[in-house]
Nucleoside diphosphate kinase
Amino acid sequence: AVFFHQEFTMTIERTFSIIKPDAVAKNVVGEIQSRFEKAGLRIIASKMIRLTPEIAGKFYEVHKARPFYNDLCSYMSSGPVVVQVLEGDGAVLKNRDIMGATNPKDAAPGTIRADFAESIDANAVHGSDAPETAAQEIAFFFSGTELCDRP
Ligand code: UDP
């Protein structure tokens, strides 16, 4: 038998995702989750919560020096969000691909941001940019017992 899996099997990863207030208000939570599922990502944890500006500020602390930081924190606490953990082959990059570019004007057709985002600030989704940040972001919102082992 010939085994290809050394070259072609990707790593099972976990990534952290937020469906932002604009997408929740548009009532497209299910459509966005469906895109994750169709891409082969499994939702292993999910909850709808309302962030306080303080929690949003902590979560986005890396952007503290950026000019958009205050607006971003008030925006992210302006309405409920869905925080979730996605698992699958190459989940971090796969999720970034499905999301599309930060500015929906630059997002490729068929991506979540191209289809559902309003603007660079109200841009429908957040997704971790690397496995290391994914681990930190998951731990910020979920305890270990909230992450489900699932088929
Ligand atoms: N953002 C903004 N104005 C900007 C750049 C970013 O409001 O000029 C917001 C936007 O909501 C973005 C978030 O800050 O999703 C984090 O920015 P980042 O560059 O990390 O983009 P992302 O990783 O979300 O694509």
Observations:
- The chain has a mean pLDDT of 95.
- The two ends are 27 Å apart (CA to CA).
